[in-house]
Protein 1
Amino acid sequence: MSPPTWDEYLAEASAHLAAVRATSERGAPPPNPPARPEGPPPEERLEQVRSLAMGYDQLALELLTRMQAMDQRRPVSQAKNPHQELLPARYINTPI
């Protein structure tokens, strides 16, 4: 299978970005990314490539911000004192 052209890649990558955004909002795993063409992008496609890269960067920033907000709302576990004596284990309310 031959690598895609830059036009095909940009169209597939734009659709992929939209799909990743939609799946991340549902909490589902992202779809596989499209195959990248060989070599550097042509001069006439550089602006589209930069725009697409900024779209992925923006999505990554949004996801990171959401994850940090969720992490701040998680309950904080009590840190255990390493010098505190542990009680013996109990199974069915019977000391071992």
Protein 2
Amino acid sequence: MSNIVRLVWFDLKPDLKPPVWIIMEWVVFLVQVGVYGAIITQLVNNPLVGDYRQFFAVGLLIMITFDMGSHTGRHFVEHAHEGRLPYLLSLPISRTQLFLTIALQGGAELALMLAVPLTITLLIIGNLTLVSVAACVLTLFWLGFGVAGLMLALSFIAFKSSDLYTAIVTGLSAIIIRFSTVLYPFIVLPPQYASAAAFSPLTYGSDLVRFILGFDPGILLNPYYAVVVLTALAVSTLGLGAVLVQRLVEGVKSA
């Protein structure tokens, strides 16, 4: 375990000297919630939704979680194309430890990225318990690991064609985010959009977080379904990624 922690710190340390990209993401979140959120709340008057800024803030948390999960997969691809992957493969660690290192680094980056946005969101919502806050954090990380596993599995496409990988990830990101309940409740979606949203993991992640934080259950999907879907996503994608890193990582093209 100590080897994994050292590798995580080795790879994460350059990004924290200084952590400009994290601070800029915090600033963007604050602007979106403080300016855009305040404006659009005046336009959304659905009594079932209530204060739309609270709904919107949770949606931004989900999008940050998704982006960081995607970043974990892209980071693995960058290792290969920058020539760092052969160095990592030469270290006296197993492929399983290498996979855990990548996943834990993604978790550490997600924790740093969510620190300020999650705090602001919890303050906006208010009236929360320690249990609900802890459950919210666990759900976000479970969703983040599920997305990271998906992107790690897709990252092996990049060893054949980085352009194809970029196209697939970009298209998949747009579909998963737009056809979900990240920015709008399931009950207001037209039937064709609602059918598509039912296949987005972000739908279940966002609705489960909102349920935990006390939003009206009438506008949310069944939380038990959400737990099952997120668990299946995380277990299956991380398992697939672990298998692929064992079978396909050797001999990949690094340029």
Protein 3
Amino acid sequence: MTTHKFSLVAEATLDRRLFLAQALAHGDIFSRIPREQADRLYQNIAAIAHKLITMKTVDLSDESALRTHIQTAFTLTSLGLEYGSKGDLDKAVQLLRKTRVVKFFQIGNTLMERLHDRARHLLEHAVIRPASKDEESPLGTDYTDIEIQGIQIYTQAELEFLKALLIYRITIQTRQVTIRDTDTPRPLLHLKEVEMIDSQLACIEHRCDYVKALPLENPFVLDPPLSIFPNPIERLTLSLIVNLVLYRQVDFEIDEEARQDFHELAYADGEVRESLRQQLLNWITQYLEQTQQPEPVKTYAVAYWDDCLRIEGQVGASQSDH
């Protein structure tokens, strides 16, 4: 089995899209990295891959897992080199010539571990749960004996994004206010993707702070339950918006009749009326200012409300077509 493990590393090819591969090719073209040194670099990366396999692979017969760890060794080393050289190929070649390759792996690993820590925290904590037996329920009702699902602040697509991140994969092409469109998970290739992931995690984190700031004592008493919706926070936001527009009051429950009345008042040809849109965005901005939310949370919440209004307009237009 050990021999098989080593042969997989030896057979592994460096993805040409990686910055590391581009730097090695650049050095080769200009004869700046001697062949012996390039071979030594590969050997050092192979040693890193071996160590990852030893540390993280439970079943050495799982060839897919072995290949994943080999790819991870290449990816983290490449990200570290791109970070250290600021994406400059000439500087990258210089660094490869004078710096131990494990240093680049350590940099890349540090970058990703920070993202992993945030992803794990969101998976565990970005869920609204009912009060435990040791806590007082907001409305004085004991829900601990009732089977109540937690309310996820992240969407199902964002759940896939967070889980893929933990195995050094990415599911998005661009940052989204709410992740709605995902691709098949693919390996990380470039530092710009790390930066995009950082920004996307911030979106979910800011949404958590936004939800906590809302004047809602107990989301578990809403009818229908938020947990039945594929995007419960969007439903919560839409309910607040509808009540503000129709009744000038803060409330988080709506029925389909109120929703239809809202569409007739707020939209024209699927587009929200600009004056109403601005009033709503001003309302959430002012509310979050009163609750002393930081600027990034306010900025995100405004973008989130804008996105919810846009999506609701598309839903209404689609329903009217039928």
Protein 4
Amino acid sequence: MRMNPFLWGMATGVVVGVTAELIVCPRPKCRKTAVGQAMQRMGNALDTVMVTVAKKLE
């Protein structure tokens, strides 16, 4: 199995993602706020899932 095409694809995806993020939100404060909001949403979602699972296990 050759990993070279896979690694090139992953690197290309990272570059495209970073470029798109810089175009959408060019200022560092905006990026920090977006990351903070995303982390908050993920935390809330995880809390909700854990509560749901706990209720089902009771």
